[in-house]
Amino acid sequence: MRSPRILAAAGTVAAAALVLTACTPGGGSSESGSPDADATVNVGLVLEPTDLDIRTTDGIALDQVLIDNVYEGLVSRTAAGEIVDTIAKSHEVSDDGLTYTFDLNDGVTFQNGDEVTADDVVWSISQVKDDEGMQGHTDLANVTSITATDDDTVTLALSAPDSNLLWNLAGRAGLVLDEAATNDLSTTAVGTGPYTLKSWKQGDSLTLERNDDYWGEKARVKSVVFRYITDANAGINAMLAGDLDVQTAVDANLATQFDGNADIEIARGKTTDKYTLAFNNKVAPLNDVRVRQAIRMAIDHAAVVKAVGGAAVEQGGPIPELDPGYEDLTDVAPYDPTKAKELLAEAGQSNLTLDLTIPSFYGTSVATLLVSELEKVGITLNVKSVEFATWLNDVYTNKDFQLSYVDHAESRDFGNWANPDYYFGFDNADVQRLYQESVAAADPETAAAKLKEAARIVSEQAGADWLYNAVTLTAVRKGVTGFPTDSTSTRLDLGELAVKE
Fold first, then answer.
1. Which residues are within 8 A (CB) of 259 and not within 5 positions of it... i.e. 6 or more apart?
2. Angle 88-89-95 (CA atoms, 0-180°, nearest 5)?
């Protein structure tokens, strides 16, 4: 099953921040001067990983802090979704789409000093390919062989064209690890990136340190400390007090507290965060499309956007604007409580009671609004707030739920809708066919067109309700540059992060 890549604590509760050394009094930094190579940057995040093993641990918290910073692959992704060569200095795809050839950069080393070899690359990708328990295993389904053609070249052969392969190789499926390393992946990490993992104090912080032996362009700050701050108000107050210098995923309902502060700028960024009201399509009464459609039409999505402070746009389908195949599908299920009541009556449902299971660290504003909206059409919503570990076990793994509300943050994850075993339980043969045709497409335009067609079916069949696509707000203090402002919930590439002296 595809990894959930769920950012459980994003949205209106997420807070991230930086505390910088070598700043001017009050936490601010001078606008002039060269980058301070000795700066230590403290980054506050909400969701802490339960384990550091990026091979087997679910959730996007590891991707956020470790990919691009500690771990790298043959290729990587930019915030805009472009694929760029990384450990590979170049790559070539055969005309039939069945052979991918990667020429490796010279002088790439792991953080323990070992040289990266073609054999390390083959071993790393083969591990994922051969082990169903590895994150990214299904992403390599079309790969038939991974070989070291020579000391500096790795070739992947495919059974069928795969338009997603480079994208997948830029994720967990393509990370390059040291075959000779004996470190415990659950508590340590050895990669090739510009930062090393210095320490992890579970429940408190995770510290990255500049890799002075990095084979590429060196990091511009000495260290980065990720601190886990679960309360949005606490993050705002620390920012205002000068203790924090950058805060990501600012709660839009609190952002006005920065108004008039000349030392803090708020940047708006696009994301692929899809805040999803998930339906268990396999259990009654949600196995009836009329019930699912009624729920969607009972919800005023403009009111949802307002409830999260306006840092969102309405999303009527499973593909966000940043991803291939996007189409504005907000007209598929317009707000229409009267029609919702009619659909429920047709389905033989009255005085319906449903459980909504959500991770406990989400705010109450959206859940409260959903309770109110569904009550208007005769549906009583029982909100069950649980710890994220419980959510993963009960909802995601065991599929023991009716409705759930969670942020699906990962880019290009439409394949979940073509997988009837995914926790959504959505099973549609046309969607599965179109998705496979998209994967097999030889050109990006054809692939996107197939996804677009499939996404409309998912929306019309009410596979879920997509409450909104988040807009991320980042508060940045003067003197801090190079901090990502787009797609911050999926990756925090800190290669350009700098602090002016």
1. none
2. 80
Compute the distance between CA of residue 248 and CA of residue 472 in angstroms, rounded to an integer.
7
* Tally of CA atoms within 13 A in the half-sphere of 464 that contains its CB: 28
Helices (H), 36-175: 61-66, 118-130, 165-169
Task: Judge contact between 151 and 106, C-beta under 8 A.
Answer: no
- Residues 230 and 354: their CA atoms lie apart, in Å, by 29
Q: Are 247 and 44 in contact (CB under 8 A)?
A: yes
- Distance (Å, whole) CA 105 – CA 84: 13
> Side chain identity at 372, as an amino acid letter?
S
b/e per residue 250-260 (b: at least 16 CB within 10 A): bbbbbbebbee
Residue partners of 436: CB distance under 8 A and separation at least 6: 418
The pTM of this model reads 0.77
| Distance from C-alpha of 147 to C-alpha of 372, rounded to nearest angstrom | 58
**Contact call for residues 67 and 487 (beta carbons, < 8 A):** no
Which parts of the chain have pLDDT scores under 50? Answer: 1-31
pLDDT for the residue numbered 30: 37
Which residue blocks in 255-319 are alpha helix, DSSP H?
289-297, 301-307
Rounded to whole angstroms, the Cα distance separating 334 from 361 reads 29
Pairing of strands 379-386, 352-359: parallel
| The token pair that represents 287 in the structure block | 């196995």
Q: Please give the Cα distance from 327 to 318 (Å, whole number).
A: 10
Tally of residues, the chain:
501
Q: How does pLDDT run across 251-292, given as a tens digit for each residue?
A: 898 999 999 999 999 999 999 999 999 999 999 999 999 999
Which pair of tokens denotes residue 60? 């996007």
**49, 476 Cβ separation under 8 angstroms:** no
**Torsion over CA: 278, 280, 284, 290 (sign):** positive
Distances (CA, A) of 452 to 408, 456, 458, 497: 18, 6, 10, 36
* Alpha helices in 209-329, H assignment, sequence order: 232-241, 289-297, 301-307
Other beta carbons within 10 Å of 196: 24
CA-nearest of 370, 433, 438 to 404 is: 370
In the chain, the N- to C-terminal Cα span, in Å, equals: 48
Burial zone of 91 (CB within 10 Å; 0-12 exposed, 13-18 middle, 19+ buried): middle
Tokens of 406: 């969670």
Residue whose entry in the numeric block shows the structure tokens 């090393």: 196
Token pair for residue 452? 């677009």
| Distance in angstroms (rounded) separating the CA atoms of residues 198 and 181 | 16
DSSP 176: -
8 A C-beta contact, residue 392 and residue 415: no
> How far is C-alpha 177 from the geometric centre of its chain's CA atoms?
22
Provide the pLDDT for residue 33: 63
Cα dihedral value 480, 34, 491, 121, nearest 10 = -170
